DNA sequence: CGTCGCGTTGACAACCATTCTCACCTTAGT
DNA sequence: ACTAAGGTGAGAATGGTTGTCAACGCGACG
């Protein structure tokens, strides 16, 4: 049974308000910034639960830290992140899915999974750099 | 200046003999298993150097640990890993490169980088599971 | 409403990959 | 060989993440 606790509600709310991928530590800070008191371990536990429930996406940044984000669409999709401001665009890429499948088949691998993320500099940040 | 030391040679050799992606710790064990004495920190340092020299590929496994591998081709490419035996196939995917570029352009992101790895069960391991 | 069972929590320790420190060692150029 | 500068190792430090366990609080049920 999954209970709705004060802490979980606080974490979910912060996550819902955030457009971008956040580390567990950032979420923790944000929750505390809103006056709630929530333990770091609880943030991690909540994220694990939501990830395995498919309600949240995880990805690892270049340093290997886990980052979480509540996505609009629940189906499988990919992301395009701005490496400066963290802005995130969701991308569905039937092309990549097909590619993964066909490459797997060509090498006689079964049960194919894949990761694919894009990183770049968004138009706004590129403009800022010029100035 | 880059010097060739006993330790570095040992690490490079082990890496050359290995077809699969290995964590720094695994490489360390393998080197010591061959009778050489090399510090773990040195393995990490050597890997960093080789990665930034483009001689070695890194990727992060699901747990976020860095894994290293010496690849045949030096150009940018992707991998298909067997999640059971670790076997690795190199894949060049012009398709994915184009996809990354065009998606980036469509969202007006510049300086696009991407990650894309495939995981599956190879034919041999699939056969083993049946038995 | 009150009780009770069990999922949940939090403070803190434990873990573990990775990096840093720093005194000592080795390579490479001459 | 001589020496400067890069390289090394043991261990400590770092930092993200997970485990521990007693105390807590949802919510089902009466």
How would you describe this protein?
The structure is a homodimer of 131-residue chains. Chain A is an alpha+beta fold and 131 residues long. The first copy, chain A, folds into 2 domains: 1-70, Orthogonal Bundle (Arc Repressor Mutant, subunit A), CATH 1.10.10; 73-131, Dna Ligase, domain 1. The first copy, chain A, is 43% helix and 24% strand. Chain A has helices at 6-17, 24-33, 40-52, 94-106, 123-130; strands at residues 22-23, 57-60, 66-69, 78-82, 88-91, 110-121. In chain A, the strands form 2 sheets. A 3-stranded antiparallel beta sheet of chain A has the order 1-3-2. In chain A, a hairpin with a 5-residue loop joins strand 2 (57-60) and strand 3 (66-69). In chain A, helix 1 packs across helix 2. The termini of chain A are far apart. At the A-B interface, helix 4 and strand 6 of A face helix 4 and strand 6 of B. The structure holds a DNA duplex (30 and 30 nucleotides).
Features:
Dna Ligase, domain 1, three-stranded mixed sheet, Arc Repressor Mutant, subunit A, homodimer, 6 strands, alpha+beta
Largest sheet of chain A: 3 strands, antiparallel
User: In CATH terms, what is the fold-level topology of the largest domain in chain A?
Assistant: Arc Repressor Mutant, subunit A
Specify Rg of chain A, calculated over alpha carbons.
17 Å
Question: What oligomeric state best describes the polypeptide chains here?
Answer: homodimer
Biggest interface reads: A-B, 33 and 33 residues
CATH architecture call of the largest domain in chain A: Orthogonal Bundle
Order of helices and strands of chain A: HEHHEEEEHEH
* DSSP E strands of chain A, number: 6
Strand order of the largest sheet of chain A: 1-3-2
Low-confidence stretches of chain A: none
Considering DSSP H and I runs of 4 or more, what fraction of the residues of chain A is helical? 40-55%
Relevant CATH superfamily of the largest domain in chain A: Winged helix-like DNA-binding domain superfamily/Winged helix DNA-binding domain
Overall pLDDT metric of chain A: 93
What is the name of the CATH class of the largest domain in chain A? Mainly Alpha
Number of helices of chain A: 5
User: Structural class of the secondary elements of chain A?
Assistant: alpha+beta
How many domain regions of chain A? Answer: 2
Overall geometry of chain A comes to flat
How much of the sequence lies in strands of chain A comes to 15-25%
User: How far apart are the first and last residues' alpha carbons of chain A, in Å?
Assistant: 54 Å
